[in-house]
Amino acid sequence: MCGIVGAISRQNIVPILVEGLKKLEYRGYDSAGLAVIHNKQLGRVRSTGRVKQLEEEVVKHHITGSIGIAHTRWATHGVPSERNAHPHISLDGLAVVHNGIIENYEALRHQLQEMGYVFTSETDTEVIAHLIHSFYRQHHQLNLAVREALARLQGAYAIAVMVEDQPEQLIAARLGSPLLIGIGEEGYYLASDASALISVTQKMLYLEEGDVVELTLNGYHITDRQGSEVERVMHISELSPDNVELGPYQHYMQKEIAEQPRAITDTVEKIVGVGFTPDLFGERANEVFSHIKGVMILACGTSYHAGLVARYWFEQITHLPCIVEVASEYRYRISVPQPDFLVITISQSGETADTQAALKHAKALGHHHTLTICNVPESALVRQSQFSFLTRAGMEIGVASTKAFTTQLVALFSLSVVIAKCQSRLSSDKENEYLDALRRLPNKIQHVLNLEPQLTLWADRFAQKDHVLFLGRGIHYPIALEGSLKLKEISYIHAEAYPAGELKHGPLALVDERMPVIAVAPNDNLLEKLKSNLQEVKARGGVLYVIADNDSHFKAEEGIHVIRMPDHEGILSPIMHVVPLQLLAYHVACQRGTDVDKPRNLAKSVTVE
Questions:
Q1: Active site residue 2
Q2: How open is the CA angle 237-240-241, to the nearest 5 degrees?
Q3: How far is CA 88 from CA 76, 207, 371, 463, in A?
Q4: Does 300 qualify as catalytic in the annotation?
Q5: How far is the C-alpha of 225 from the C-alpha of 223, rounded, in Å?
């Protein structure tokens, strides 16, 4: 989604703003802009397209300054265009950048127009600029004007504001959208994502809901929504500049697929060292896990698919019921509260707006026991949950999630084992078996990555197709869903996934020689059932592409192409079987020439509904 960078410094901050925007490109955007103040004169440059184009405009117009704000925009209100790009400017050189959505912007726009303000964009953000100015012109106190304007806004926001006749202060605020402060040697910084600031500092403070901060060259001052001074804990970011470098890879997605053995190793390192202990999830975990009566998972997109896989693990290992909800739908229906269930939220960023809202709704219904599985230590979901588990995947830049997904699965599997242990439903032999499986997993994933040349050949055949069908059974049906999502996300090929047993109930009508069918075929207790389903495809002239375990005795023949994985890995098989589907999607997208890391219309971090 949209990204914010801001800075006030003793030096020219334009290179820092531009570099910060480049680091935020992975979030998804369609335009970019920056504004700086120099000699009490505001200068602004905006551009559609990539940050590189904005950088060229900055050089062309000799933009320089020691205080400034910058933004990458993902269009919500108004088409992608220069006039809709941020920063937006009101009278007296008051400039604003904004992440989020203002729900009452139409009413405010009408009121401001009646006051004489002229709008030049279709955005909700321009309302913020004019609204702040309407208060600022009364008393010329920017901090106070921002507070007065925020009291009128309904919705979610992270904003940064400056005005040309007060170049010594930068004001920012957040509600429902992430924002952090960076503390550097030469100045103070703002960003919506830590990656934007790691080139200048690793010292960061994460703003809480309702916080307003004033940055000057002498420091920062934070108050809460009531206006009371508050302190926020400083954190040293674990990110380093190397985390966001592409290295020898063609795309970040390719890099992140290849990083999965390392990411899984880092995630399971503590588990295999101490065993399946509830302390992995936080204080009082044993007390809570021992008494829960079930599990409810709230997630979106790829994280939702991780939850669907985990349902099989929770019910098989813990013998407790597990409900998996699409977070964006959960709070918009009448649901039956289950206060003795553990509510689990899953999110790579920990800032997913729909999942945050779902968690808030669950708490309001009386669900007091909450746990988040996340990749970002200081994210909103981590702070709002009773328990947490960090996946240690490292920074993920490609919009199509890969290593975040597989490490989420590792975390969910481990959680299911821990809960079973807390409820005395796990034998020591089983615990040792599961630990051994986790230890083997990174090496097994590396073996799967070695299949890349074969999947590249498959990609040559798929690149010219318009439709693809994915099939799976049991715990591997969600893996088929995830493979389908990956292909459509980055190659723009229409793809659907079904449980293989559902073929006769409709999807079989689509099958012919023009629609390839991909089957996830592990050597488990459903293999023979799956083989029967696949014969139905072959009998209708369909062409099958089968991801099979080495010991499944799946025979390649006319109309059936087979790639053999390592031997069946038992309960952790889903984590292995998703990797070839990631590779296939990646190479198909490369063949089709799409923007693999930044697919059209999509954003990495979905911070608005």
A1: yes
A2: 135
A3: 15, 23, 39, 42
A4: no
A5: 7
